[in-house]
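Workshop exercise sheet. Pairs work together: one partner reads the sequence aloud, the other fills in the structure field after running the prediction. Swap roles for the next sheet.
Pair: D.N. / O.F.
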Amino acid sequence: MKRVGRWTWMLLTLLLLLCTTAFAETIECGSIELEQPVEVALESYDSFQYTLTAPVDGTRVKVEWLSDNKDAVQLYINGGKVSTAGGICTLHEENTIKVNPASSKLIPLTVRFVLHEYRNDEHEPNDVTPTELHDGDSVKFVLDDGDMDWFSIKTEKPGQDIALTFSGFNYADRTAFSLVWNRGWEIEKNGTVFLHAGEPGAYQFSLYKSWSGEISRSMEIHLLDGDENELNDTKETATPLPIGTDAAFSIGGIGDEDWFSFEAVPEEGQAKLYTLRLLDFDFENPEIVCYEIYAPDGNVVVPETEISSRHARVLSCSQQGQYAVRLYPKEKYDYYSEKYNVSIQRAALRIRVEEGGDDPYESNDTWLDAAYIEPGQLISHVLSSGDTDWFCFTASEDYMTVHIVSNSGGSAGIYTGQELAEYGDDASCIWGGNSNYKSFSNLYWKLGEKGLYYIKLIGGSSEAIRSTTISLIPPEAIENNDAWNRATPLYEDVTQAFDISAYNDTDWFCFTVPEGAPQTLLLNFNTKTELLNTSYSEYVYVKLYPKAYFENQAGMIESDEVRFGQEWNPTRFQWNLDPGIYYMQVKSRNMETSWNWADILKLNVCWKLIPRSSNNSIAAAVPLTEKVWQDVWQDGYFSIGERKAGEVVQIQLDDGGNTPKDHIYVYDADGKYMKDSYYASFSFQVSADGVYYLKVPEYDVNLNAENEPMRPIRIRYYTHNDKIGAAESIAMRPNESVFLDLWFSPEIRNSLKVESEDEALTYDLETGYLTAPNTPEGSADLVFSNGYPEGDERRIEAVVHVTWSEKLLSDISISNAPQSLTVGSSAMLEANVDADSYIKYVSWKSSDPSVLRVLSNGKVVAVGQGEAVITASIGEATSSVTITVTGEQPGESGLTGVSLDRYTLTLYAGEEAEQLTATLKPEGTEATIRWTSSNQTAATVSQDGKITPLSAGVTVVTAAAGDYRASCIVTVQPERVRVTGIRFDEPTHTLMMGSTVTLQPIIAPDDATVKNLTWVSSDEQTATVSRTGIVTALSVGETTITATTVDGGYSAEIKIIVTAAAQLGDVNGDGYIDAADALLCLRASVGLITLTPEQEAAADVNHDGLIDAGDAILILRYDARLIPSLN
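Structure field:
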């Protein structure tokens, strides 16, 4: 019976609740108006509904509660619940306002409220109806949570672009907002954004902010004319591009696409080669452009290709008809903000398509025939199914990273020249596996010692021209730390920057925990990468070992992961460590997972020792002293002591640019939650006498500056009776950011408003930092208020007078400087200035950071033997001290390697010996070098490195010292006939712009063995020359082409004169079309003279492919004005 009774009561209770809801009614109460107080008497669990007509669709309103029982009701506007803390809502033209009790237990009650029109800037209400702007307008706008400001502007010309210049970002206010123009774009810094418009008409865009809080920004708007070929934004409106002629284009703004088309005329069943050129890129500040190419059947023959410099691409066209080239800006998607980013500069660029093009690297099907390339150059080559292309390059430094980007398809392998020389076709590759080669569309791989390397590319899937770029990334200064016994020392408080440049890259570091009381190690990382595939995050492993691990006496201490993103991402680890030496390994997760490598990973690392603390509970809370800042290195509890009921306690948190992971929480002595906040300053009212506690969160340190010491967050508290208060005055330097002392009562927080006399003087409510304008000097008042307008009796305010100036002191000295330090030790120097308030403006510098590192707070750390001068400066005043560092850096003694000045060499039998030079590492090391030749029939080597070629063949010359060696591949060719000279038949040659000619200099003697040449153009803007002597005329002007023989270094020059494209009918090129031109046509038609290709193009005025009397007659008729033109 008990069980039945219990269920019966539960069912009755549920039924009662359902009935209460079911019988609740909606009572229509008529209409209300803005600014009209509304009183609602709730006698039952019913809803009272009102109607409200807004003056404009999109009007925003803010609720003011006139009674203290606002939490007892629920207010809905158009079905959306409104926060009782004073929420802001956007209205339609017609609206419903509904009020009902929050609970039936609170009935009866009476509430009073009023809806105020809310305008955060002068353009409101523009959340629906856009604010109309005009060319040249400058506006200031404010965005808060849920606000969307719409603007419109009318364009007058086809293809005009809209330039929006935003300002207002600074150190203390870095909050991003979004621009909607065809989709969301992230705006995160001062600068100009370009929007592309099509046909003339009215265009709209909007600005909004996703996060809570309020920001103020400025915007200027201008209309800019598009390029001369607009509108060509679609394939259907593509600009025709005659073969060999230039067309101008520019990426005008977001949404702009420039389409061009050219006609390909391959013979039936065959392919014809064409070369696409994109020109006029700025080397220092290049525009980033993407392009695609479509065949006449609509298929993509060249997928998205990103370029930022002068570019040429060879196309294999097998279809007859119009090929289309699509040019557009590079867009990057940020998965964190779910917005796009793009950089557009509207650079004036040119496009041209020419007939011809080939694979200049064939035949390079074996490693012995590998094409030597300079790292960084774009390789246009054909890699069809079954084809193999070999390339080789020289790594000029140890531990460089090779970066290969290719659309060749197929697979690849990387080899060392030494391995190939010793084992030939049986050589093992260092990447790709011996037979199981890997794809290489975007490959990073860390190389070993400097020297010759080979890359083998194995067949793709078509005869299309492919693009491959092989780049070399220099090693960082601390490389060669890929083993624990070559670990890079880390010093407390000193930030070390390093890269993980490839998934086979590993960096080792070591540090020492000194003897003394038990300590906690704080290890901080800051990481960043430009991930090419932003759909996933990259990681590295961090593993910590004691020195005893390498003596088989202890295990690994810890293993963890560090995550990367497209912005600097802080990560902190903390471990309780005993005194001793520790080693840290940082390596790519991909070494263990075999994932594809994404990009270079950039890291900063810094460590600090702090006393072990145990304030991880209320019982172990650390007491705070009122009004005194407390440094906080770890998360934990802090006591603010005995407090009296009714007291207002202000909590201030100075994060110092670090990133707290959670809110600050307030608890009473029983552990009951009272309040929390993530703002720099907040307050609460004590509800009952007793002791209260703060729970301060863990935080990550932002290591953005190499010589900035790690700094903790700071926290303090004090009690007050003010509604709003702030420091009366503060002195700053231009563009400086400082934490501002601000306090207020709890009920003021949500309505707190900041107003500045100078819009460049800003305050960030979230961080608590005040930033001065970047002007030499000035002053302004900063006013904090409860949001009511001036003159309203309810307004409460506090005023801070801010001054800023560049004026600095003229005298400074350094104290506490030791005469000497040992490697690994440190000292804190002090700068003595007349006024303590100026101490933070002192800058420190070391004359040799490899000996002494100095931080911005004056701490010097000895990192290497030698002597360095430390200088402190403020304004024009300086003071210096000299400190000597003694002791040995770990891992610096002994031989670490040997290198050669060359790693490949071609000699000819019977000629003079060639000198090879070996260098021992580190510099200054003494050791015996042993020289050997693997094939002494081909060449011998002396013990001082001189190679004597004897007969045709290949040998490997090796220099060995200790356990290290370096090798050079020496190819000996048969005896050769030496070159004795070179000349051109003519001193000058004239070309029309867009045409080409193949130069063929005469080399003496005719039977010379090596006739290879190098080619140089003195002005590549006028004409370029290929490595096979093909000259391409680009613009009107003159240039000198120099051909130099590889054998002997003999040179010959020819002047190339580039003229404008020939005018039809102007056969002699004198600028006139007359009888002289007709006479040249007649003489050429009977074989008396031979016309140049440029003259033939001008003479064939009837376009029948022949030069005859018909062309001469048309020229004479035009000269006599009998016909209007020759076209």
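Discussion prompt: The longest helix spans residues 2-22. What would you look at next?
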